[in-house]
Amino acid sequence: MYVAVKSGENAVKHARRLVAKARRGDHALAQIQVEQIMNQMALAVDRVMAEGSLYDPLAAATAIRQAQGDLVEAVFLVRALRTTLPRFGNSKPAATDKMRLFRRISGIFKDIPGGQILGPTYDYTHRLIEFEGQEDQTEPLPPIPDTRPLDTCPIDEKFIPWVRNLLVKQDLIPEIQKELIGASVPDLTRQPLKLPAGREVRLQNMARGDEGFLLASAYSLQRGFGLDRHPFLGELRVGWATLVYTPPELGFEIEIGEVKLTECFMVNRTNGGKERRAGLESGYGITFGQNERKAMSAALLDRSLTKACEEDAQVKYPAQDQEFILAHSDNVESSGFVQHLKLPHYVDFQSELVFIRNQNKERKSKGKEKVNCRV
Questions:
Q1: Is the pLDDT of residue 7 over 60?
Q2: Does 330 score more than 90 pLDDT?
Q3: Which pLDDT score, from 0 to 100, does residue 150 have?
Q4: Which has the least CB within 10 A, 82, 140, 211, 281?
């Protein structure tokens, strides 16, 4: 037994050396720099920050390089780092209606206050791999503006208002629930998920959930497994929100920085009922960085889960079941459960073999008894 343990320990050490060698790759090529990942793989960095529950582009880019581009592994590294960091306090709720926008679109109105802002997006590209022209541009491209076009805003506004406000004024949709905002909201990064969960916890869970799982679940809604009407994109906003914090030693608010966020709300028609007029139902999603698919998926699932959990609707499909969505959307936990199967299970498997052999032996014994009775 002692020899087996030592042998396994040496194998693990060699495996780590092989990982380091594979990570570095061909030494004839320059090592990729973290700054390159931060600037040229920004969407991957945004995804790792969101699912890692830590807004730190440097840490996310470093984790991506260390994980050889495996984003789930990079998320695991970022979450491990986050657990070691001290927490000084809670900022005020980010005023997302005052974000410095570089992208903002709506699918329900053509002309909206502040205008449509396409910004950098792959929505209108040809999806063709550009093998030619991979060398650096001879002329630098114009810089992408990081501020919203204030000259397109209404004169009496200093920020671009939500499209949702237009629907509220027309009494088509209720106002935002203020109880979801504030320090009293449970923190899912410090407290375990408990079911059933309130909407504030569900939104947190999806904000750091696996994009692929949320996307597939939202897609199932659109294919008829839980969503009976076509949804519409009310508004998608991507920009920088200012964080405000009140240090105890100062006693007054100060701006401590900005975070890049993606915010989305979806709407679909409701016919109402005896005690409820016809109007619109909405779902909301928000996440770190520019993660548009994820924010849209979260908004679709938010409406589905809210309808099922708070309106006592019948749960028929997975995307309506909060336990299914919330318990399986954590890619770190899911990855751990699946990958632990690669670890030794020799004793467990031997017990399975013993059980199978005993079952077959018992069945064979009973079969012989029946034959004897017939004879």
A1: no
A2: yes
A3: 38
A4: 140
